[in-house]
Design brief:
mainly alpha, 169 residues
Length: 169
């Protein structure tokens, strides 16, 4: 514990209680936002589905395209409802715990982060991306999309296929 362990323990406990309170506030705000989203978008969706069902019940024609927003809207709203009233948060927290235990290498911040030194002992060499990581912007030419866009446009793109070396003088 150290010489002043008796004095720092209550401070550490107070900090932990504050962090737990902040976490609870953030989680409750997220759940409240999901409930608000459900109310805001659920009402027009329910009106739309009721109208379509009413037209079908009365034998009136309904465009086939009406099935698309009914299905997609139902999927989206069921996801929001699961967050607002279901156990989605518990499943997300379980997945987060699994990532923190078994895939810790995914959480290492960039080397410019001020708290990077906390992660210096992280075994980055254990994961497959340690030496192969490249910026996302460098994938444009390697994905084969260049040929697709050139064929669609009928003209070559203005960017070089591979980075050209700087001119020597």
């Amino acid at each position: 514990m150290g010489l002043f362990g008796w004095a720092t323990r209550p401070v550490e406990d107070a900090v932990l209680r504050r962090q737990a309170l902040m976490r609870e506030v953030q989680m409750s705000v997220g759940i409240a936002q999901a409930r608000d989203t459900l109310v805001v978008f659920g009402t027009p969706y329910a009106l739309f589905v009721t109208t379509v069902a009413g037209r079908l019940a009365l034998g009136r024609p309904v465009p086939g395209l009406a099935a698309l927003p009914a299905i997609i809207g139902g999927l989206v709203l069921s996801n929001v409802a699961d967050m607002a009233y279901g156990n989605k948060m518990a499943r997300v927290l379980g997945e987060a715990e699994s990532i923190m235990e078994h895939e810790r290498y995914r959480l290492v911040p960039p080397k410019q982060a001020p708290f990077r030194r906390v992660y210096d002992d992280t075994p980055e060499a254990d994961h497959p991306w340690s030496t192969q990581a490249t910026p996302v912007g460098s994938f444009w030419a390697s994905l084969g999309l260049r040929a697709v866009f050139e064929a669609a446009l009928g003209t070559p793109l203005l960017m070089p296929a591979t980075p050209s070396p700087p001119p020597t003088t």
